[in-house]
Amino acid sequence: MSGKLRHSFDFLIEMMIHYGLALREHQSLIQKQEEIQIEMNVAAKVQATLLKTRKPDFKELDIGFVTEPAKQMSGDYIYFLNDNSYEAGVAVADVIGKGIPAALCMSMIKFGMDGLQNENTSPRNVLDIVNRIVEKSVDDSMFISMFYGKYDARDSSFSYATAGHEPALLYKAATGEFTELHAKGLLLGVHPNVVYEEKSVILEEGDFIAMMTDGVTEVRTDTGFIDDQVIKMILAEVKDESAQKIADTVYQRLAYLQNFHLRDDFTIVIFKKENDKV
Amino acid sequence: MNLQVDLVEENSVQRFKIVGEIDAFTAPKLKECLASVENVGNMQAELDLSEVGYMDSTGLGVFVGFYKAVKANGGHVKIVGVNNRLKRLFVITGLAEVMDIVMEESRDEDATV
Q1: Which one, A62, A141, A266, B4, has the greatest CB density within 10 A?
Q2: Which residue of A lies nearest to B113 if distances are taken between CA atoms?
Q3: Mind telling me how many Å the CA of B17 is from chain A's nearest CA?
Q4: Which of A96, A167, A214 has the CB atom closest to B61's CB atom?
Q5: What is the pLDDT along chain A (278 residues), one digit of tens a residue?
Q6: How many Å lie between the alpha carbon of A143 and the closest alpha carbon of chain B?
Q7: Is the CB of B58 less than 8 angstroms away from the CB of A97?
Q8: For position A146, which CATH number holds?
Q9: Half-sphere exposure of residue A186, counting CA atoms within 13 Å on the CB side?
Q10: Domain range for B59
Q11: Is residue A278 part of a domain?
Q12: Is A207 a domain residue?
């Protein structure tokens, strides 16, 4: 065999060996990707099971909610507390940080809150305790914002406190106006000793409270962030509908504005005071 | 989705100039840059956000983590060049009360709430 021909064969063999190695690596990566996907599916199922929550059934309080993750696992979290026949509480939280660690963090909080049953479940107390759990046990780079509200059927009052969370919106049927429900409180997990401000409003017939995460308020379209008037306008349009219809409508409209491609987990909970049903 | 972080040391203050958008994609890079000085004792850090076009909660998480580490080592964090939108974010999360936040083009030395 001439020198040149041998050279060409050597070159060809080298190329084929490289190709063979690349192909093997490619196949190995595909397999790894499939394994990860299977694990993610399991984790998502575990999250759904661990974080199951049941909507309280109060005859004068209509509750509706929508929670949609941007990816497979959600960093948003809704948890209902309902120990007795006259109080219905809800925690709406947003974990800063995503994926499996965020879900595990949520589970820890849920168990912490479960342990609060039969104790003082005033909003400021709930946040204080949850803050301590998060600060002690959670990874230093994980933080959580939470809004906690409690409706008391005995006097139709809604008391609330917030840990660095988006303010909720209160709609008053009598005036047709919206008010932002603000309260002072630091994000969970930053300092171990935080005093959470607690406030209270009275709900009258037709009034409702919309609790959201920033996946709702920070929607971005081609032209920039949505104005906060947009959310109020949508809510005003469906103010006479059921709580669930209100929540669904807000989701449909805002998801549409983003071409149904969510950048962040989307969560909205509506507590609406109805007239006493017979 | 681009981010650039420049560090300049001036009068023993570590000044970080952050340019671009801070979101889930760029936050790890920011975190890495800040981590390089986190463990220095009694460090004075200043973060300039005047050219940050967008920041979401992942960015906030990076700043809070940095603040906690610096504070634990006896240092201090100041955030400057904050626009209205960012200011709202810092106020709602309660961080404006624990960190020094200065708005852009502000004549006040410390425009903390």
Answers
A1: A266
A2: A184
A3: 22
A4: A96
A5: 688 889 999 999 999 999 999 999 999 999 999 988 888 888 778 777 777 788 888 878 999 999 988 877 778 889 988 878 889 999 999 988 666 677 778 888 888 888 876 667 899 999 999 998 888 876 767 789 999 999 999 999 999 999 999 999 999 999 999 999 999 999 998 888 999 999 999 999 999 999 998 888 877 777 777 778 889 999 999 999 999 999 999 999 998 888 888 878 889 999 999 876 43
A6: 7
A7: yes
A8: 3.60.40.10
A9: 19
A10: 3-103
A11: no
A12: yes
Calpha distance A243→A27 (Å, rounded): 50
How far from each other are the two terminal CA atoms of chain B, in whole angstroms?
31
Domain containing A128 equals 55-273
Q: Which residues of A touch B61 (CB under 8 A)?
A: 96-97, 141-143
Q: How far apart are CA A36 and CA A38, in angstroms?
A: 5
Report the DSSP pairing between strands B44-55 and B76-82.
Answer: parallel
The pTM (predicted TM-score) of the whole model is 0.83
- Interface contacts (A, B; CB < 8 Å): 54
Q: Give yes or no for a contact between B17 and B5, defined as CB atoms under 8 angstroms apart.
A: yes
